[in-house]
Amino acid sequence: MTRAQVETVAARALGVFGLVFSAQTVPSALAQAGALVDGAGIALMAVLYGIAVVVALATFTRVGVRTAATSYAFAYALALAAWPALVEDPALLEGRAPWLYYLCTIATTAAVVAFPVGGAVGYTVAVPMLYGLVRLSPAGGGVGPALAGLDAVYALILGIVVLVIITMLRQAAEAVDQAQDAALQRYDVAARQHATEIERVKIDALVHDSVLTTLLSAAAATTPDEQALAARMARDAVKRLDEAGATGPRSLERVALTVLVRRLRAAMTTFTTPFTVRVVNAGGVELPVEAVDALYTAAVQAMVNSAQHADEPGRTTRRELRVRGVRAGGCVIEVSDNGAGFDPAAVPQERLGLRVSIEERMANAGGRSRLDARPGHGTTVVLAWPAEAMGDAS
């Protein structure tokens, strides 16, 4: 299981159970609404239930998951802190626990999904403690320290269990991802060496069968017919050599597009400038090893160019990396920013970043690249493999 799959499973579990637990609290929330100031009960339900629906939609569409989970975690903490001030008649609660208690585990799970480990730990500890304090107050039922502490510890234990499980799964998945990336790199080298050896054998056979035969025929040609035959053989040998050089060694092995995405994310950690990453339709897409290498190198070069040249004084530059699978065997990558931009025609010929590292590398691998740039309007580099996939680029 990869890190991306762990995040997906955890987020979708949050979305599903968030809706289930919210539905279970509706009777209690309606029953306790009369004890709150006018409109407060309905407002709390609208906010928390509404965000729970947003979280569920985000987890299944994979759009804005962290933002939605962060919103739920903060909204719940604010609602819990405001509960004593919102209760107008504590007697109507009859000592019962606030209905917010039953959503505590959902809130701590949202924090685990949205926050780094340190923030998730702090939230998981702080929110149950806050609930214990609310439970001691008249608005929370006015129970004794023992019962309030028991409720807080129970919520704390549930939160810690979720935190530990998700954190352990993340760490295990990261180890798997790193091992797979290392294995892929070793395999990439081995596959290239194997393809190069096959190509060497093919060239050796071509030289022996065509070039040497042509040279021997030319040396032995004495009549016009023999000389014409030798000339035809020479033209055929040159053509076959040109075709062999243009084709080059190729590996037929394929790897998943998700591996390329992970390599690009790892490369981004070396940049001081952040990139927003959007991945669409990556599941089930497989690319040849050479295509993955060309796309990776060209995309990293485009990101380096953006980091070095796009910034303008006094203006924040937004950078984005978009990766989209095209059917089962194609890919389109877009590296864009809204920075300074430039005139491609004004780039000196000796500058190799665009011409060699991007354009020629993609062309040699059977893909295409496109540059959209204007001074003052940002830059977008589009990479497509195979070349026909450029028609699917936005």
UniProtKB/TrEMBL annotation:
The keyword Ribonucleoprotein does not apply. Gene3D superfamilies: Histidine kinase-like ATPase, C-terminal domain (3.30.565.10). The chain crosses the membrane at residues 41-60, 67-87, 99-126, 147-169. GO terms for molecular function: ATP binding. Residues 293-387 form the Histidine kinase/HSP90-like ATPase domain. Keywords: ATP-binding, Membrane, Nucleotide-binding, Transmembrane, Transmembrane helix. This is ATP-binding protein.
